[in-house]
Amino acid sequence: MKAIAGACIIDDRIPGPGWAMNPEVALRMVLRQVDLFKGLDEETLDCIARAGFRRRLDAGAFLFFQDTPAQSVYVVLEGRLRILQTTPEGERVVVRHVQRGEVVGLIAILDAVEYPVTAEVAEDGTVVLGWSGATLRSLMEAYPRLALNAMTHMAGMVRDLLRRVRELSTERVERRIARTLLRLARHAGRRVETGVEIAFPITREEIAQMAGTTLYTVSRTLSRWEREGLLEAGRTRIVIRAPHALVALVDDLSH
Question: pLDDT tens for residues 85-102?
Fold first, then answer.
């Protein structure tokens, strides 16, 4: 059952105190960064926030699992998620990492669909704001800009998927590794004294999975690039010392 609060549609099935999130300036600042809410005014953002529910989870917990009914959509407020896919052989493969201000599970706005991936919490104290698919659909009816943003977001995901498929099909492995590191740096890079550090722990195995290659190949390639001064590669820490050199490497390897 839904209730109307001004122009704001609220799903009153959402759990009560302790889950409902009171809109605050800090929350609006995060929501303004989310592409799904682009172009919406503060009053609308407040309504959307009040219609949601908050969850706080620690590393190792799961928001949802691949091939289970898609029921909720989430925005990361703090922390980080690891997005996984399970192969037919049962192997878990890291697809990407999701950080503050990013959306996961948007497919839940559709009826009778399943999540195509698993969302695992990667950091203690991760906080997400979520909405049931039915609630978000009602909000889209009230705020057409939200529906347009959702379509744009999903189109972008399809475009990224097609680009990744093309890269895996046509590019040499070193170029794919370089692209993966540059994507991570653009997505979650922070300036440090020696270069640009990927701002969360990431293993060589995860890099291999994201680049579509083997752990051995990634280890060998990163070790060579480290000797050449392009980066510093620890067990779970990567600092790109020469980002422009990696960009040039990507371009050169295409010829």
Answer: 988 888 888 999 999 999
